[in-house]
Amino acid sequence: MNLLQQVLDGLGSGSVYATLALALVLVHRSTGIVNFAQGQMAVISTYVAWTLYDAGVPVWGAIGAAIVLSLVVGALVERFLIRRFEGGEPLAAIVVTVGLLISVNGLVSLIWGTVLKQFPSAFPPGGVGSGSGGTIGYGTLGTIGALLVVVLALNWLFRHTRLGLAFRAVAANPESSALLGLPVGRLLMLGWGLAAAVGALAGCLVAPKLYLAPEMMDSVLTYALAAAVLGGLNSALGTVLAAWFIGVVENLAGTYVSFVGGDMKIAVPLVLMVLILLFKPEGVFGHKEVRRV
Amino acid sequence: MSVVVDEPAVRDGGGTSRRRHGRTLTAVALVLVFAVFPLFMSPFANLQVTLILVYAVAILGLDILVGWTGQVSLGQSAFFGIGAYGVAAGAVHGWPVWAGLLLGTAVAGVVGCLVAIPAARLRGYALGMITLTLPVVAVPLAKRMEAVTGGAQGLNVTIVQAPAWTGLAADQWRYYVVGVGAAIVFALAAALRRGRFGRAFDAVRVNEALATAQGVHVTRYKVLAFTLSAVYGGVAGVLYVVAVQFISPETLILTLSISMLAGLAIGGLRSLLGCVLGAAFYVVVPNLTGSVSAGQSYLLYGVCLLVVMLLMPRGVAPALGHAVRRVANRRERAAASGE
Fold this sequence. Notes:
A: ABC transporter involved in vitamin B12 uptake, BtuC; globular; B: mainly alpha
Protein backbone atom coordinates (compact mmCIF):
# COMPACT_ATOMS: atom_id res chain seq x y z
CA MET A 1 0.00 0.00 0.00
CA ASN A 2 1.11 3.48 -0.81
CA LEU A 3 2.08 5.77 2.06
CA LEU A 4 0.48 8.86 0.51
CA GLN A 5 -2.78 7.03 0.04
CA GLN A 6 -2.73 5.84 3.66
CA VAL A 7 -2.18 9.41 4.83
CA LEU A 8 -5.02 10.73 2.67
CA ASP A 9 -7.36 7.97 3.84
CA GLY A 10 -6.43 8.92 7.38
CA LEU A 11 -7.27 12.55 6.60
CA GLY A 12 -10.62 11.36 5.24
CA SER A 13 -11.63 9.51 8.41
CA GLY A 14 -10.01 12.27 10.46
CA SER A 15 -12.35 14.73 8.77
CA VAL A 16 -15.36 12.74 9.96
CA TYR A 17 -13.97 12.76 13.52
CA ALA A 18 -13.33 16.49 13.14
CA THR A 19 -16.91 17.20 12.08
CA LEU A 20 -18.37 15.42 15.11
CA ALA A 21 -15.67 16.97 17.33
CA LEU A 22 -16.72 20.43 16.10
CA ALA A 23 -20.24 19.62 17.26
CA LEU A 24 -18.83 18.70 20.70
CA VAL A 25 -16.88 21.98 20.79
CA LEU A 26 -20.00 24.00 19.88
CA VAL A 27 -21.92 22.42 22.75
CA HIS A 28 -19.05 22.85 25.17
CA ARG A 29 -18.52 26.48 24.25
CA SER A 30 -22.17 27.38 24.63
CA THR A 31 -23.17 25.36 27.69
CA GLY A 32 -19.94 24.02 29.22
CA ILE A 33 -21.17 20.45 28.82
CA VAL A 34 -19.56 17.55 26.96
CA ASN A 35 -22.44 15.87 25.16
CA PHE A 36 -21.95 12.10 25.16
CA ALA A 37 -25.15 11.77 23.12
CA GLN A 38 -23.75 13.84 20.21
CA GLY A 39 -22.88 10.73 18.18
CA GLN A 40 -26.20 9.06 18.88
CA MET A 41 -28.11 12.22 17.89
CA ALA A 42 -26.12 12.15 14.63
CA VAL A 43 -27.21 8.54 14.11
CA ILE A 44 -30.91 9.35 14.36
CA SER A 45 -30.41 12.28 11.95
CA THR A 46 -28.74 9.91 9.50
CA TYR A 47 -31.66 7.49 9.78
CA VAL A 48 -34.02 10.35 8.97
CA ALA A 49 -31.93 11.14 5.87
CA TRP A 50 -32.00 7.47 4.90
CA THR A 51 -35.79 7.33 5.28
CA LEU A 52 -36.20 10.38 3.03
CA TYR A 53 -33.81 8.90 0.46
CA ASP A 54 -35.67 5.61 0.62
CA ALA A 55 -38.89 7.50 -0.10
CA GLY A 56 -37.38 8.89 -3.31
CA VAL A 57 -35.83 12.20 -2.25
CA PRO A 58 -32.47 12.81 -3.97
CA VAL A 59 -29.52 12.15 -1.67
CA TRP A 60 -28.41 15.79 -1.29
CA GLY A 61 -31.97 16.87 -0.52
CA ALA A 62 -32.37 14.10 2.04
CA ILE A 63 -29.14 15.07 3.80
CA GLY A 64 -30.07 18.77 3.73
CA ALA A 65 -33.51 18.11 5.18
CA ALA A 66 -32.03 15.94 7.93
CA ILE A 67 -29.55 18.70 8.81
CA VAL A 68 -32.29 21.33 9.07
CA LEU A 69 -34.48 19.01 11.14
CA SER A 70 -31.53 18.28 13.46
CA LEU A 71 -30.98 22.00 13.96
CA VAL A 72 -34.52 22.34 15.30
CA VAL A 73 -34.49 19.17 17.42
CA GLY A 74 -31.06 19.97 18.88
CA ALA A 75 -32.31 23.40 19.97
CA LEU A 76 -35.40 21.82 21.56
CA VAL A 77 -33.25 19.28 23.46
CA GLU A 78 -31.26 22.15 24.95
CA ARG A 79 -34.37 24.09 25.88
CA PHE A 80 -36.41 21.33 27.47
CA LEU A 81 -33.83 18.90 28.87
CA ILE A 82 -30.33 20.34 29.20
CA ARG A 83 -31.40 23.80 30.43
CA ARG A 84 -32.33 22.36 33.81
CA PHE A 85 -28.82 21.02 34.40
CA GLU A 86 -26.72 23.98 33.24
CA GLY A 87 -24.66 25.44 36.04
CA GLY A 88 -25.46 22.56 38.40
CA GLU A 89 -23.38 19.56 39.38
CA PRO A 90 -21.31 18.72 36.26
CA LEU A 91 -21.74 14.97 36.86
CA ALA A 92 -25.52 15.34 36.63
CA ALA A 93 -25.20 17.05 33.24
CA ILE A 94 -22.86 14.32 31.94
CA VAL A 95 -25.21 11.58 33.12
CA VAL A 96 -28.19 13.31 31.49
CA THR A 97 -26.39 13.21 28.14
CA VAL A 98 -25.67 9.52 28.80
CA GLY A 99 -29.38 9.00 29.47
CA LEU A 100 -30.10 10.80 26.21
CA LEU A 101 -27.62 8.53 24.40
CA ILE A 102 -29.32 5.39 25.73
CA SER A 103 -32.83 6.68 25.00
CA VAL A 104 -32.05 7.76 21.44
CA ASN A 105 -30.30 4.45 20.79
CA GLY A 106 -33.39 2.63 22.02
CA LEU A 107 -35.62 4.87 19.92
CA VAL A 108 -33.59 4.18 16.76
CA SER A 109 -33.77 0.42 17.33
CA LEU A 110 -37.49 0.71 17.97
CA ILE A 111 -38.28 2.71 14.81
CA TRP A 112 -35.83 1.29 12.28
CA GLY A 113 -34.85 -2.08 13.82
CA THR A 114 -31.30 -3.33 14.15
CA VAL A 115 -30.88 -4.62 10.59
CA LEU A 116 -27.97 -2.86 8.86
CA LYS A 117 -28.93 -0.42 6.13
CA GLN A 118 -26.95 0.72 3.11
CA PHE A 119 -26.57 4.50 3.02
CA PRO A 120 -25.93 6.17 -0.36
CA SER A 121 -22.76 8.20 -0.82
CA ALA A 122 -23.30 11.84 -1.68
CA PHE A 123 -20.21 11.69 -3.88
CA PRO A 124 -19.64 9.75 -7.12
CA PRO A 125 -17.76 6.44 -6.98
CA GLY A 126 -14.17 6.12 -8.17
CA GLY A 127 -11.42 8.62 -7.60
CA VAL A 128 -8.43 10.47 -8.98
CA GLY A 129 -4.99 9.06 -9.69
CA SER A 130 -4.09 5.45 -10.39
CA GLY A 131 -1.22 3.00 -10.72
CA SER A 132 1.62 3.25 -8.20
CA GLY A 133 0.22 6.45 -6.75
CA GLY A 134 -2.91 4.65 -5.55
CA THR A 135 -6.40 6.05 -5.84
CA ILE A 136 -7.87 8.86 -3.80
CA GLY A 137 -11.59 8.23 -3.68
CA TYR A 138 -14.03 11.04 -4.43
CA GLY A 139 -15.71 10.08 -1.14
CA THR A 140 -12.53 10.87 0.80
CA LEU A 141 -12.00 14.14 -1.06
CA GLY A 142 -15.66 15.04 -0.61
CA THR A 143 -15.50 14.37 3.13
CA ILE A 144 -12.45 16.58 3.54
CA GLY A 145 -14.15 19.24 1.41
CA ALA A 146 -17.36 19.07 3.46
CA LEU A 147 -15.36 19.58 6.65
CA LEU A 148 -13.63 22.62 5.18
CA VAL A 149 -17.00 24.08 4.16
CA VAL A 150 -18.31 23.56 7.72
CA VAL A 151 -15.23 25.21 9.24
CA LEU A 152 -15.43 28.19 6.88
CA ALA A 153 -19.16 28.57 7.42
CA LEU A 154 -18.84 28.47 11.21
CA ASN A 155 -15.93 30.87 11.04
CA TRP A 156 -17.97 33.29 8.95
CA LEU A 157 -20.94 32.95 11.30
CA PHE A 158 -18.94 33.59 14.46
CA ARG A 159 -16.53 36.21 13.19
CA HIS A 160 -18.55 38.23 10.69
CA THR A 161 -22.17 38.29 11.80
CA ARG A 162 -23.94 40.02 14.69
CA LEU A 163 -25.49 36.69 15.65
CA GLY A 164 -22.04 35.13 15.97
CA LEU A 165 -20.82 38.05 18.02
CA ALA A 166 -23.75 37.64 20.39
CA PHE A 167 -23.09 33.91 20.60
CA ARG A 168 -19.45 34.50 21.48
CA ALA A 169 -20.47 37.01 24.16
CA VAL A 170 -22.79 34.44 25.74
CA ALA A 171 -20.10 31.77 25.62
CA ALA A 172 -17.60 34.09 27.27
CA ASN A 173 -19.86 35.45 29.97
CA PRO A 174 -23.57 34.53 30.12
CA GLU A 175 -24.37 36.81 33.06
CA SER A 176 -22.97 40.01 31.55
CA SER A 177 -24.56 39.09 28.22
CA ALA A 178 -27.94 38.76 29.89
CA LEU A 179 -27.45 42.18 31.52
CA LEU A 180 -26.70 43.62 28.08
CA GLY A 181 -30.06 42.33 26.90
CA LEU A 182 -28.85 39.44 24.77
CA PRO A 183 -31.33 36.54 24.52
CA VAL A 184 -29.00 34.09 26.33
CA GLY A 185 -31.46 31.19 26.29
CA ARG A 186 -32.08 31.42 22.56
CA LEU A 187 -28.37 31.64 21.83
CA LEU A 188 -27.73 28.52 23.90
CA MET A 189 -30.44 26.79 21.86
CA LEU A 190 -28.61 27.95 18.74
CA GLY A 191 -25.38 26.38 20.03
CA TRP A 192 -27.03 23.00 20.53
CA GLY A 193 -28.97 23.28 17.27
CA LEU A 194 -25.84 24.05 15.24
CA ALA A 195 -24.04 21.17 16.98
CA ALA A 196 -26.83 18.76 16.09
CA ALA A 197 -26.78 20.00 12.47
CA VAL A 198 -23.00 19.57 12.17
CA GLY A 199 -23.32 16.15 13.84
CA ALA A 200 -25.99 15.15 11.29
CA LEU A 201 -23.55 15.98 8.50
CA ALA A 202 -20.88 13.84 10.20
CA GLY A 203 -23.33 10.94 10.36
CA CYS A 204 -24.27 11.24 6.68
CA LEU A 205 -20.57 11.40 5.71
CA VAL A 206 -19.56 8.29 7.64
CA ALA A 207 -22.64 6.17 6.89
CA PRO A 208 -21.66 5.23 3.30
CA LYS A 209 -18.29 3.91 4.56
CA LEU A 210 -19.85 1.83 7.33
CA TYR A 211 -23.34 0.42 7.32
CA LEU A 212 -26.10 2.41 8.94
CA ALA A 213 -26.64 0.87 12.39
CA PRO A 214 -27.69 2.17 15.83
CA GLU A 215 -24.10 1.81 17.12
CA MET A 216 -22.51 3.36 14.02
CA MET A 217 -21.09 6.44 15.76
CA ASP A 218 -19.82 4.84 19.00
CA SER A 219 -16.18 4.59 17.97
CA VAL A 220 -16.38 7.87 16.00
CA LEU A 221 -17.53 9.55 19.22
CA THR A 222 -14.49 8.19 21.09
CA TYR A 223 -12.14 9.66 18.46
CA ALA A 224 -14.10 12.91 18.34
CA LEU A 225 -13.91 13.25 22.14
CA ALA A 226 -10.17 12.66 21.97
CA ALA A 227 -9.82 15.27 19.20
CA ALA A 228 -11.94 17.83 21.03
CA VAL A 229 -10.05 17.42 24.31
CA LEU A 230 -6.70 17.41 22.51
CA GLY A 231 -7.70 20.58 20.69
CA GLY A 232 -8.52 22.24 23.98
CA LEU A 233 -12.34 21.88 23.76
CA ASN A 234 -12.75 25.49 22.62
CA SER A 235 -10.67 25.88 19.48
CA ALA A 236 -12.06 24.92 16.06
CA LEU A 237 -8.65 24.96 14.38
CA GLY A 238 -7.05 22.91 17.16
CA THR A 239 -9.89 20.39 17.00
CA VAL A 240 -9.59 19.89 13.24
CA LEU A 241 -5.82 19.48 13.38
CA ALA A 242 -6.11 17.06 16.33
CA ALA A 243 -8.75 15.01 14.48
CA TRP A 244 -6.62 14.81 11.33
CA PHE A 245 -3.64 13.78 13.44
CA ILE A 246 -5.72 11.06 15.09
CA GLY A 247 -7.10 9.80 11.77
CA VAL A 248 -3.67 9.62 10.12
CA VAL A 249 -1.89 8.04 13.11
CA GLU A 250 -4.62 5.46 13.52
CA ASN A 251 -4.51 4.52 9.85
CA LEU A 252 -0.72 4.32 9.65
CA ALA A 253 -0.36 2.36 12.91
CA GLY A 254 -3.08 -0.10 11.90
CA THR A 255 -1.38 -0.70 8.52
CA TYR A 256 2.33 -0.62 9.25
CA VAL A 257 2.76 -1.74 12.88
CA SER A 258 1.89 -5.42 12.92
CA PHE A 259 1.54 -5.58 16.72
CA VAL A 260 -1.25 -3.01 16.66
CA GLY A 261 -3.60 -4.77 14.23
CA GLY A 262 -7.31 -4.11 13.92
CA ASP A 263 -8.32 -4.57 17.55
CA MET A 264 -5.76 -2.17 19.06
CA LYS A 265 -6.05 0.45 16.32
CA ILE A 266 -8.33 2.61 18.44
CA ALA A 267 -5.84 2.57 21.34
CA VAL A 268 -2.96 4.19 19.42
CA PRO A 269 -4.37 7.72 19.05
CA LEU A 270 -5.76 7.53 22.59
CA VAL A 271 -2.40 6.62 24.09
CA LEU A 272 -0.75 9.39 22.06
CA MET A 273 -3.41 11.77 23.31
CA VAL A 274 -2.62 10.75 26.90
CA LEU A 275 1.08 11.46 26.34
CA ILE A 276 0.38 14.86 24.79
CA LEU A 277 -2.08 15.84 27.52
CA LEU A 278 0.47 14.99 30.20
CA PHE A 279 2.79 17.64 28.81
CA LYS A 280 0.11 20.10 27.66
CA PRO A 281 -2.80 19.59 30.08
CA GLU A 282 -4.85 22.40 28.55
CA GLY A 283 -4.70 20.76 25.11
CA VAL A 284 -2.53 21.80 22.19
CA PHE A 285 -4.58 24.85 21.27
CA GLY A 286 -6.37 25.45 24.55
CA HIS A 287 -5.77 28.38 26.82
CA LYS A 288 -4.25 28.00 30.24
CA GLU A 289 -6.86 28.26 32.92
CA VAL A 290 -6.24 30.87 35.56
CA ARG A 291 -7.60 29.98 38.95
CA ARG A 292 -8.37 32.17 41.88
CA VAL A 293 -8.60 31.21 45.49
CA MET B 1 -15.41 20.11 38.00
CA SER B 2 -16.97 23.11 39.57
CA VAL B 3 -16.69 23.95 43.21
CA VAL B 4 -19.64 22.71 45.19
CA VAL B 5 -19.79 23.26 48.90
CA ASP B 6 -22.70 21.50 50.46
CA GLU B 7 -22.66 18.86 53.14
CA PRO B 8 -19.71 18.73 55.53
CA ALA B 9 -17.54 15.60 55.72
CA VAL B 10 -18.47 15.01 59.31
CA ARG B 11 -22.20 14.51 59.49
CA ASP B 12 -23.93 15.93 62.47
CA GLY B 13 -24.42 12.82 64.59
CA GLY B 14 -26.63 14.71 67.00
CA GLY B 15 -30.35 15.26 66.84
CA THR B 16 -32.80 14.41 69.55
CA SER B 17 -32.42 11.17 71.50
CA ARG B 18 -35.69 10.02 69.96
CA ARG B 19 -34.18 10.40 66.51
CA ARG B 20 -30.95 8.61 67.42
CA HIS B 21 -33.02 5.83 68.92
CA GLY B 22 -35.01 5.53 65.72
CA ARG B 23 -31.85 5.45 63.64
CA THR B 24 -30.38 2.54 65.66
CA LEU B 25 -33.65 0.62 65.40
CA THR B 26 -33.76 1.13 61.64
CA ALA B 27 -30.17 -0.09 61.28
CA VAL B 28 -30.82 -3.24 63.35
CA ALA B 29 -33.99 -3.96 61.39
CA LEU B 30 -32.16 -3.54 58.08
CA VAL B 31 -29.36 -5.92 59.11
CA LEU B 32 -31.94 -8.50 60.25
CA VAL B 33 -33.90 -8.25 56.99
CA PHE B 34 -30.66 -8.53 55.04
CA ALA B 35 -29.58 -11.60 57.08
CA VAL B 36 -32.76 -13.63 56.64
CA PHE B 37 -33.51 -12.46 53.07
CA PRO B 38 -31.69 -15.27 51.17
CA LEU B 39 -33.30 -17.99 53.29
CA PHE B 40 -36.74 -17.19 51.87
CA MET B 41 -36.02 -15.84 48.41
CA SER B 42 -35.37 -17.49 45.05
CA PRO B 43 -31.80 -18.03 43.80
CA PHE B 44 -32.48 -15.39 41.13
CA ALA B 45 -33.46 -12.77 43.73
CA ASN B 46 -30.41 -13.67 45.81
CA LEU B 47 -28.13 -13.22 42.79
CA GLN B 48 -29.72 -9.85 42.07
CA VAL B 49 -29.06 -8.59 45.61
CA THR B 50 -25.52 -10.02 45.52
CA LEU B 51 -24.84 -8.17 42.25
CA ILE B 52 -26.25 -4.95 43.69
CA LEU B 53 -23.72 -5.22 46.53
CA VAL B 54 -20.90 -5.96 44.05
CA TYR B 55 -21.65 -2.86 41.96
CA ALA B 56 -22.26 -0.80 45.10
CA VAL B 57 -18.61 -1.43 46.10
CA ALA B 58 -17.39 -0.35 42.64
CA ILE B 59 -19.59 2.76 42.71
CA LEU B 60 -18.36 3.56 46.23
CA GLY B 61 -14.82 3.48 44.81
CA LEU B 62 -15.91 5.90 42.12
CA ASP B 63 -17.53 8.10 44.77
CA ILE B 64 -14.19 8.39 46.63
CA LEU B 65 -12.73 9.87 43.46
CA VAL B 66 -15.69 11.78 42.00
CA GLY B 67 -17.79 12.67 45.04
CA TRP B 68 -15.17 13.11 47.73
CA THR B 69 -12.26 14.51 45.72
CA GLY B 70 -14.03 16.12 42.75
CA GLN B 71 -12.17 14.25 39.99
CA VAL B 72 -13.80 12.28 37.18
CA SER B 73 -13.05 8.81 35.87
CA LEU B 74 -14.30 6.64 33.02
CA GLY B 75 -11.84 3.87 33.91
CA GLN B 76 -13.54 2.08 36.78
CA SER B 77 -14.52 -0.94 34.64
CA ALA B 78 -10.82 -1.60 33.91
CA PHE B 79 -10.00 -1.86 37.63
CA PHE B 80 -13.10 -4.00 38.10
CA GLY B 81 -11.66 -6.28 35.39
CA ILE B 82 -8.19 -6.42 36.97
CA GLY B 83 -9.66 -7.57 40.29
CA ALA B 84 -11.90 -10.10 38.59
CA TYR B 85 -9.13 -11.56 36.42
CA GLY B 86 -6.79 -11.62 39.43
CA VAL B 87 -9.02 -13.92 41.44
CA ALA B 88 -10.24 -15.97 38.44
CA ALA B 89 -6.74 -16.59 37.01
CA GLY B 90 -5.52 -17.43 40.51
CA ALA B 91 -8.33 -19.94 40.95
CA VAL B 92 -7.52 -21.58 37.59
CA HIS B 93 -3.97 -22.12 38.87
CA GLY B 94 -5.24 -23.58 42.12
CA TRP B 95 -4.59 -20.56 44.33
CA PRO B 96 -6.80 -19.98 47.38
CA VAL B 97 -9.34 -17.18 47.05
CA TRP B 98 -7.63 -14.85 49.52
CA ALA B 99 -4.43 -14.98 47.44
CA GLY B 100 -6.41 -14.06 44.32
CA LEU B 101 -8.11 -11.26 46.26
CA LEU B 102 -4.73 -9.87 47.33
CA LEU B 103 -3.30 -10.18 43.82
CA GLY B 104 -6.32 -8.63 42.09
CA THR B 105 -6.68 -5.67 44.43
CA ALA B 106 -2.92 -5.07 44.64
CA VAL B 107 -2.53 -4.97 40.85
CA ALA B 108 -5.60 -2.71 40.55
CA GLY B 109 -4.14 -0.39 43.19
CA VAL B 110 -0.70 -0.29 41.57
CA VAL B 111 -2.14 0.41 38.10
CA GLY B 112 -4.43 3.05 39.60
CA CYS B 113 -1.49 4.70 41.34
CA LEU B 114 0.68 4.61 38.19
CA VAL B 115 -2.10 6.21 36.14
CA ALA B 116 -2.80 8.76 38.86
CA ILE B 117 0.75 10.07 39.34
CA PRO B 118 0.85 11.80 35.94
CA ALA B 119 -2.94 12.22 35.65
CA ALA B 120 -3.26 14.15 38.91
CA ARG B 121 -1.98 17.19 37.04
CA LEU B 122 -5.10 17.15 34.89
CA ARG B 123 -8.62 18.05 35.81
CA GLY B 124 -12.09 17.89 34.35
CA TYR B 125 -12.57 16.46 30.90
CA ALA B 126 -8.87 15.96 30.19
CA LEU B 127 -8.69 13.58 33.14
CA GLY B 128 -11.91 11.93 31.96
CA MET B 129 -10.40 11.33 28.51
CA ILE B 130 -7.23 9.80 29.96
CA THR B 131 -9.22 7.40 32.10
CA LEU B 132 -11.45 6.56 29.12
CA THR B 133 -8.35 5.05 27.51
CA LEU B 134 -8.15 2.38 30.24
CA PRO B 135 -11.17 0.26 29.26
CA VAL B 136 -10.53 0.89 25.55
CA VAL B 137 -7.08 -0.69 25.98
CA ALA B 138 -8.10 -3.24 28.62
CA VAL B 139 -10.68 -5.09 26.51
CA PRO B 140 -8.39 -6.04 23.55
CA LEU B 141 -5.56 -6.69 26.02
CA ALA B 142 -7.74 -9.15 27.97
CA LYS B 143 -8.60 -10.88 24.69
CA ARG B 144 -4.94 -11.16 23.68
CA MET B 145 -3.42 -12.39 26.96
CA GLU B 146 -5.00 -15.81 26.49
CA ALA B 147 -2.59 -17.64 28.80
CA VAL B 148 -3.81 -15.62 31.78
CA THR B 149 -7.30 -14.51 30.81
CA GLY B 150 -8.62 -17.33 28.65
CA GLY B 151 -8.96 -14.94 25.70
CA ALA B 152 -12.34 -13.92 24.33
CA GLN B 153 -13.96 -16.99 25.95
CA GLY B 154 -13.17 -15.70 29.43
CA LEU B 155 -12.64 -17.83 32.54
CA ASN B 156 -15.11 -20.14 34.25
CA VAL B 157 -14.21 -20.85 37.87
CA THR B 158 -15.66 -22.64 40.86
CA ILE B 159 -14.74 -20.73 44.00
CA VAL B 160 -16.30 -20.04 47.40
CA GLN B 161 -18.31 -23.22 47.84
CA ALA B 162 -20.74 -23.41 50.73
CA PRO B 163 -19.26 -25.59 53.52
CA ALA B 164 -21.36 -28.70 54.16
CA TRP B 165 -22.13 -27.82 57.82
CA THR B 166 -23.99 -24.67 56.84
CA GLY B 167 -26.56 -26.55 54.80
CA LEU B 168 -26.77 -23.48 52.53
CA ALA B 169 -27.20 -23.50 48.77
CA ALA B 170 -24.45 -21.96 46.64
CA ASP B 171 -26.39 -18.76 45.92
CA GLN B 172 -27.16 -18.23 49.63
CA TRP B 173 -23.54 -18.74 50.70
CA ARG B 174 -22.21 -16.38 48.01
CA TYR B 175 -24.78 -13.81 49.09
CA TYR B 176 -23.42 -13.89 52.65
CA VAL B 177 -19.76 -13.86 51.56
CA VAL B 178 -20.30 -10.88 49.24
CA GLY B 179 -22.49 -9.21 51.88
CA VAL B 180 -19.82 -9.46 54.57
CA GLY B 181 -17.10 -8.33 52.13
CA ALA B 182 -19.16 -5.32 51.04
CA ALA B 183 -20.00 -4.46 54.68
CA ILE B 184 -16.28 -4.44 55.58
CA VAL B 185 -15.23 -2.13 52.73
CA PHE B 186 -18.24 0.15 53.33
CA ALA B 187 -17.32 0.43 57.03
CA LEU B 188 -13.71 1.22 56.08
CA ALA B 189 -14.86 3.95 53.67
CA ALA B 190 -17.17 5.44 56.32
CA ALA B 191 -14.32 5.54 58.84
CA LEU B 192 -12.00 7.09 56.26
CA ARG B 193 -14.53 9.75 55.38
CA ARG B 194 -15.01 10.79 58.98
CA GLY B 195 -11.29 11.17 59.68
CA ARG B 196 -8.35 13.28 58.56
CA PHE B 197 -8.38 11.82 55.02
CA GLY B 198 -12.05 12.62 54.46
CA ARG B 199 -11.49 16.23 55.43
CA ALA B 200 -8.42 16.48 53.22
CA PHE B 201 -10.35 15.05 50.23
CA ASP B 202 -13.10 17.60 50.88
CA ALA B 203 -10.57 20.40 50.94
CA VAL B 204 -9.09 19.27 47.61
CA ARG B 205 -12.53 19.15 46.01
CA VAL B 206 -13.76 22.47 47.31
CA ASN B 207 -10.70 24.58 46.61
CA GLU B 208 -7.24 23.29 45.70
CA ALA B 209 -5.43 26.53 46.40
CA LEU B 210 -7.07 26.84 49.79
CA ALA B 211 -6.28 23.19 50.56
CA THR B 212 -2.60 23.84 49.78
CA ALA B 213 -2.67 26.86 52.05
CA GLN B 214 -4.06 24.64 54.82
CA GLY B 215 -1.14 22.24 54.44
CA VAL B 216 -2.95 19.58 52.38
CA HIS B 217 -0.66 18.12 49.73
CA VAL B 218 -3.14 18.27 46.83
CA THR B 219 -1.33 15.99 44.36
CA ARG B 220 -0.67 13.38 47.04
CA TYR B 221 -4.33 13.25 48.03
CA LYS B 222 -5.50 13.07 44.42
CA VAL B 223 -3.18 10.12 43.79
CA LEU B 224 -4.38 8.53 47.03
CA ALA B 225 -8.04 8.98 46.04
CA PHE B 226 -7.37 7.50 42.61
CA THR B 227 -5.51 4.53 44.10
CA LEU B 228 -8.23 3.88 46.69
CA SER B 229 -10.86 4.14 43.99
CA ALA B 230 -8.97 1.56 41.90
CA VAL B 231 -8.59 -0.77 44.89
CA TYR B 232 -12.34 -0.59 45.52
CA GLY B 233 -12.91 -1.32 41.85
CA GLY B 234 -10.60 -4.34 42.18
CA VAL B 235 -12.42 -5.60 45.29
CA ALA B 236 -15.73 -5.26 43.44
CA GLY B 237 -14.27 -7.31 40.57
CA VAL B 238 -13.26 -10.07 42.99
CA LEU B 239 -16.74 -10.07 44.55
CA TYR B 240 -18.22 -10.19 41.04
CA VAL B 241 -16.37 -13.45 40.28
CA VAL B 242 -17.52 -14.82 43.65
CA ALA B 243 -21.10 -13.95 42.67
CA VAL B 244 -21.20 -15.21 39.06
CA GLN B 245 -18.12 -17.54 38.87
CA PHE B 246 -17.22 -16.13 35.46
CA ILE B 247 -15.35 -13.25 33.85
CA SER B 248 -14.87 -12.31 30.18
CA PRO B 249 -13.47 -9.27 28.34
CA GLU B 250 -17.01 -8.13 27.50
CA THR B 251 -17.56 -7.42 31.21
CA LEU B 252 -15.03 -4.57 31.37
CA ILE B 253 -16.18 -2.51 28.40
CA LEU B 254 -16.44 1.27 28.63
CA THR B 255 -20.22 0.98 28.93
CA LEU B 256 -19.81 -0.48 32.43
CA SER B 257 -17.69 2.52 33.49
CA ILE B 258 -20.33 4.88 32.13
CA SER B 259 -23.13 2.91 33.84
CA MET B 260 -21.27 3.14 37.15
CA LEU B 261 -20.91 6.90 36.74
CA ALA B 262 -24.64 7.08 35.98
CA GLY B 263 -25.36 4.91 39.05
CA LEU B 264 -23.31 7.29 41.18
CA ALA B 265 -25.23 10.33 39.91
CA ILE B 266 -28.57 8.57 40.38
CA GLY B 267 -27.80 7.42 43.92
CA GLY B 268 -26.27 10.74 44.90
CA LEU B 269 -22.69 11.83 45.55
CA ARG B 270 -21.05 11.45 48.98
CA SER B 271 -23.60 8.99 50.31
CA LEU B 272 -23.05 5.33 51.18
CA LEU B 273 -26.78 4.67 50.79
CA GLY B 274 -26.58 6.44 47.41
CA CYS B 275 -23.95 3.95 46.18
CA VAL B 276 -26.30 1.04 47.01
CA LEU B 277 -29.32 2.77 45.44
CA GLY B 278 -27.33 3.59 42.29
CA ALA B 279 -26.19 -0.03 42.02
CA ALA B 280 -29.77 -1.19 42.56
CA PHE B 281 -30.90 1.06 39.70
CA TYR B 282 -28.24 -0.43 37.42
CA VAL B 283 -29.16 -4.04 38.29
CA VAL B 284 -32.93 -3.89 38.77
CA VAL B 285 -34.24 -1.33 36.26
CA PRO B 286 -33.05 -3.18 33.10
CA ASN B 287 -34.82 -6.31 34.43
CA LEU B 288 -37.99 -4.37 35.04
CA THR B 289 -37.95 -2.62 31.66
CA GLY B 290 -37.09 -5.95 30.00
CA SER B 291 -40.11 -7.59 31.61
CA VAL B 292 -42.36 -4.70 30.54
CA SER B 293 -41.28 -4.95 26.92
CA ALA B 294 -38.24 -6.83 25.65
CA GLY B 295 -38.01 -4.81 22.43
CA GLN B 296 -38.15 -1.41 24.11
CA SER B 297 -36.09 -2.33 27.19
CA TYR B 298 -33.18 -0.06 26.27
CA LEU B 299 -35.40 2.90 25.44
CA LEU B 300 -37.31 2.53 28.72
CA TYR B 301 -34.07 2.24 30.69
CA GLY B 302 -32.79 5.49 29.16
CA VAL B 303 -36.10 7.23 29.83
CA CYS B 304 -36.06 6.01 33.47
CA LEU B 305 -32.55 7.42 33.82
CA LEU B 306 -33.65 10.79 32.44
CA VAL B 307 -36.81 10.92 34.56
CA VAL B 308 -34.92 10.15 37.78
CA MET B 309 -32.34 12.83 36.96
CA LEU B 310 -35.05 15.37 36.12
CA LEU B 311 -36.98 14.69 39.33
CA MET B 312 -33.92 14.32 41.57
CA PRO B 313 -30.95 16.12 39.98
CA ARG B 314 -28.86 15.56 43.11
CA GLY B 315 -29.67 11.86 43.31
CA VAL B 316 -32.12 9.58 45.10
CA ALA B 317 -30.33 9.37 48.47
CA PRO B 318 -30.28 13.16 49.14
CA ALA B 319 -33.93 13.37 48.04
CA LEU B 320 -34.85 10.51 50.40
CA GLY B 321 -32.89 12.07 53.26
CA HIS B 322 -34.67 15.36 52.68
CA ALA B 323 -38.08 13.66 52.75
CA VAL B 324 -37.28 11.69 55.93
CA ARG B 325 -36.03 14.82 57.71
CA ARG B 326 -39.20 16.67 56.80
CA VAL B 327 -41.44 13.94 58.17
CA ALA B 328 -39.35 13.67 61.35
CA ASN B 329 -39.42 17.43 61.91
CA ARG B 330 -43.16 17.56 61.43
CA ARG B 331 -43.64 14.74 63.92
CA GLU B 332 -41.42 16.38 66.48
CA ARG B 333 -43.28 19.64 66.13
CA ALA B 334 -46.56 17.78 66.58
CA ALA B 335 -45.20 15.99 69.67
CA ALA B 336 -43.86 19.26 71.11
CA SER B 337 -47.16 21.09 70.67
CA GLY B 338 -49.03 18.15 72.17
CA GLU B 339 -46.95 18.13 75.36
